[in-house]
Protein: Dioxygenase
Amino acid sequence: MGIVFSDNPLFENWGRPLRLESNIIGLELVSGELPDTLSGCWFRAGPDWQYPSGRDDDIFIDGEGMVHRFKFENGGVSYRSRWVRTARFQAQEKAGRALFGKYRNRYTSDPSVAHISMGAANTNAIFHDGKLFALKEDDLPYELDPDTLETLGRYDHKGVVKSVCMSAHPKIDTVEDKLLTYAYQAKGDATNDIVYYEFNGDGALDNEIWFEMPFPGMVHDFSVTPHYAIFPIFPMITDLERIKQGGDFYAYYPDENMHVAIVPRRGTAKDVKWFKGPAWSAGHMLNAFEKDDCVNLDLCLYEGSCFTFLKTDKGEPTAFCPPILSRLTFNMKQHGDEFARRPIMPVPCEMPRTDDRYQGYPISHGFVIAYRGQDGTSALGKVDMSTGEMKVWSPGPRSSIHEPQFVPRAPDSPEGDGWLLVIVNRLDENHSDLAIVDANDIEAGPVALFSLPMRVRSTFHGTWVPAETIATGHHAMRRML
Ligand code: V55
Ligand code: FE
Structure:
């Protein structure tokens, strides 16, 4: 029989499934010198494809999760990658073939796995309460051994979690040592329920707020400030009848609105303040902060569908629109439900990140993947949040980067003072590099550049975990306000 992937462009060139579990002890240093204060692990997650699906409609946000770890130790860097052995992965491994259907549509799966979650654990890797988790928003977290990356099993937060799934975009408060997270469609496919959870540093549930969205939309990411949790709900909607008939999990509804729920972190469902806007969308939030009577949310905003592979509710294709870093401003004292929007920076960008110690507070800089060509190349961008000016480090011709990771120089260094870790794809050379860039001077290029002998297949999101946090199980960063 053999393994044959479809001729979907998704699987061509850089997208070719890699399906490789790696262990490289000591990456090759190409140039520069590793800063000697870097000690810890960078965990990331991304999709790969365990088996060909036999369909031609696979999309890039599907595929079985692979966790990746760059370990910075004793002046060198090692790399390891492992599949997440989800229930889905194990069932397919046993059968020796793909059993699960199209993205999130359980009705297109093999009947033998109808009762098994489709969760692929492919979106993010986080660390809290001494545990490493691989996340996908349609399933509970999978716990992994941070040392071996072996899968330990599905995690329900010591039995307290009643939602059937958990977001892949929690916020970790690395100063208060808290996990702030949520689930959407939290009672199952196409349900309107959102639940917000706060967990303490010992994993105990500290707060839980349930409320309902106006429709079962997509809530891929959210944001937090000291007093609020902010949930943008986009008109990419799940229709149970459509998925039962084998249709797509989300359709884009251009005649619907985006909604934003601002939830007091110590409030209840009746304290939620609602705002409403055009049929815009976004995957990812940069940051939010409170100022005077307002909550500000900075995000990579699309004036339409953020996914070109989605169809509209009428089955028409969706138009491409660029992600523009924008600020939405919500006045918490006003009576109406409108909000203001202003662009921050004109260059399309995605995967926005910050010095995460300052999530929820006004920040001076954001770090992004900046898209400047149509040829698949990209660059590292550092955006000045007060002027909108962007500084760029371009990794060179025929190269692209993964989401950057900020690492503070020290637990108490000022905001934005630290390093950026960047995986660089050498698109024509079939391998990846690891660049370490000084966040204070990204235009100077990497202070250290390491080379891998193979590709790191594109990853979505990840987390830096200092060696001390891995050892103690607790986050111990400082915020200098
Ligand atoms: C997104 C990503 C996903 C997903 C749903 O970027 C939405 C948005 C990586 O997987 O399943
Ligand atoms: Fe994401």
Summary: Residues 61, 123, 137, 220, 283, 460 surround 4-hydroxy-3-methoxybenzaldehyde (ligand 1) (CB under 6 Å).
